Structures are given as C-alpha cells and as structure tokens.
C-alpha cells in the first residue's frame, strides 16, 4: 500500500471548478471559506499543502481558476489570486510560526537536484511522507527562476524567503553551490545510498518522469513544458507521487489523475437564485494601486494588496460550489434528503440517492437531517467544529471562576451576499 498525503481538512470526490482548473489542485473554495471565517492560519496551511509558494502564486499566476469560477456567471469571478496573496501576506506580517519538523518514518533517502519550485515542492511532499530528503542546488540560494528571474517589484525577495523557509522547516537538508557533473555525479549519489534521485533542474529533456532509470526521475520547467510556477509545482507533486510509488512497491506506471465530478453550475439556476434574493449582484473588489506621483523613484510593488475588510467581503462572494456529497456506502435510500431539500437537489438514481452538484446551494440542511449520516459537507467550518472548539480550549487557560463562551454562527449568510 502506497503512503499518501492526507489533507488537514477533508477533501471530497466532488471538486469546485476553480480547483479542477488549477494545475496544482489548490483548494481555492476551501481556503476562501476559511478567509471568510477569519481563520487565516488554517487558510494558509491549506494553501501550502498544494502550493508551497503562496506569496509568488498570489502575484504572478495566470489564474485559470478564475476563468472557471461559477461566480463569473453571476457578475464577476471571485478574486481567487488576490485572496491567496492577502492570506499569505497576512501570515508573513503576523509572523505565523513555521511548521514543526516531520518525523522520519521511512529508511529510504532521496536526492533532489534543483531547488526551484518543482524540486522544493517534491521535497515538501516527500518529507511530509516521512522520507529523508537532501536538495542539491547549483546557485548560492534556493528558489530557481522565482529568485533569479523575477524583479523584486513583482515578487519581494523577503516573501519568497518566507515561502522557502516554511518548506525547509519541515526537515530537509539543502546544499547550495553544488552542480551536477561538476561537484558530484549521479553515480556518486547512488553510491552514497540515495534510493531515488529527482532531476529538477528545468533543463533535462532526455528522461521522462514515468520511466525511472535505476531510481532516477526527471521533471522540471522545461522537461514538462512548464511555463508558470503553478505548472512547476504540479510537476513536483507528480514527481513526489511517482517516487513514493516506486520506493514502496517498485511501480513505474505513469502518473495519472483520477477523474472527479466538477460542480459546474448552470446559469439558469444562478439566475433563479438571483431572482429569489439568495445571491445579490456584487462586483469583485478592485486591487489597490500605489500613487505613481509619490513613487516615481521607488521600485516597490505596484499592487498593494487587499486589507482585511476587503478580503473578507470578497471571500463572501464565493458560492461554495460542490460542498455537499453523499457517501454511497452509507446511504440507505430513506429519501429523507429528497423530502426536506427546499431546492429539489437530491434525486433517486439507480436505486440510490444522487446530489445534483450543479444545483446544490450548500445550505447544509440535508447534512444535519440525514439519519444515516451519509451526507457530508466538505466545506471547512462544518465538519471541523469539534476540532475548532478543542483548539480554542487548548489555547485558553482554564478558570473555575470565569466561564468561557464560544460563539458559533451559521455561514449560510455568505450565499446571500
């Protein structure tokens, strides 16, 4: 059985179109829901699971997620990239602590050549799986083209450092100023006991990820034709999955992505929700710019980023697409959900119940009423209430004299904004 990374917040089988469109699989809907709940630490942690460079991707991505956003059928797509930048900048300014090192649970050691987005992403995933990882970088610093090619007014280096430091904090070794075929060879790495080697230099077209040679894998910016950081990150995830599969069962089967259902909403249904007052037209928040007359000699960023109020209001525009699912093995076909849903979303299909994701409004009524507990919400803030309460109790000192009041509220109001 191959070890797989388990997300901190559960992920269902139905994906919102924003996530399905992202090459790296970033869970935009869920981190936006966390921003709407002001849970910024959870939001940045969730982003980093799939996008270890949120500061960069929040600034220079080509954001295919927004092109597929269902909100675009209403007025304008949710500002997904800007919200990612907001929570990343917030985490940096608030000095959120680095993650704890991950215990080493596997005996195999892995060498990664190249400390760019692809190599560092693979290193993060493999370290989180419990492997010992060493990264070899020819330059004096990690970051690859993010550091070497981008001007600081596009990506401040202190923020790139912050992203990389969060990756390295997981517990991997980084060696700089060492070059393949000059400082070391692949044969020497094998002799030192590395069971798998990933070439992530972005310039090796001779090998394919799915065809390892004695445990040597190749992937990178040029090898996979990757143009944007998000593509290199996606390649890093694929490389880590392939290496883990190879080390655990010897498989060299090409990496494939399992198809998922995508919650693409219908324009006619959204128009009906507008008529019913469940969705109110509200254009996306504009990104503030610096005043050129004040900054003519300054090479700081042109785009200033959202403040907290703007980010919160923008996050509330999300429609929470595809947030309710049925667990097939648990459903008893009692039809409770069919009877109580005010929007006629659940229907009988081939002897069981189907949630029509294109019509679901994520109100959560069926989740609470299902007697078999066969309907789940994958939206953060519902299933993880218990863990939220436990975290609050852990942080607050107990007192026998003063009561602790924890307030919880329904998040369905976000649908009516």
Give your account of this protein's structure.
The chain is an alpha/beta fold. The protein has 16 helices and eleven strands. The protein has helices spanning 17-21, 28-36, 40-50, 54-60, 64-67, 80-93, 117-128, 145-148, 157-168, 186-191, 229-249, 267-275, 308-315, 336-340, 365-369, 385-395; strands spanning 14-15, 109-113, 132-137, 173-176, 194-199, 216-218, 261-262, 324-326, 346-349, 352-355, 375-377. It has a five-stranded parallel beta sheet. The protein has a two-stranded parallel sheet with strand order 1-7. The protein has a two-stranded antiparallel ribbon with strand order 8-11. Helix 2 packs antiparallel against helix 3, helix 2 crosses helix 13 and helix 7 packs across helix 11. The chain is globular, with a radius of gyration of 23 Å.
What oligomeric arrangement do these chains adopt?
single chain
Reading the helices and strands in chain order gives: EHHHHHHEHEHHEHEEHEHHEHEEHEH
Instruction: State the helical fraction.
Output: 25-40%
Task: Report, as a whole number of angstroms, the end-to-end distance.
Answer: 45 Å
Count of individual helical segments: 16
The percentage of residues in β strands lies in 5-15%
Q: Uncertain regions: pLDDT < 50 for 5+ in a row?
A: 220-224, 412-417
Largest sheet: 5 strands, parallel
**Mean pLDDT across residues:** 86
| Structural class determined from secondary elements | alpha/beta
Q: Helices and strands in order, then pairings?
A:
Blueprint: E1 14-15, H1 17-21, H2 28-36, H3 40-50, H4 54-60, H5 64-67, H6 80-93, E2 109-113, H7 117-128, E3 132-137, H8 145-148, H9 157-168, E4 173-176, H10 186-191, E5 194-199, E6 216-218, H11 229-249, E7 261-262, H12 267-275, H13 308-315, E8 324-326, H14 336-340, E9 346-349, E10 352-355, H15 365-369, E11 375-377, H16 385-395
Parallel strand pairs: 1-7, 2-3, 2-5, 3-4, 5-6
Antiparallel strand pairs: 8-11, 9-10
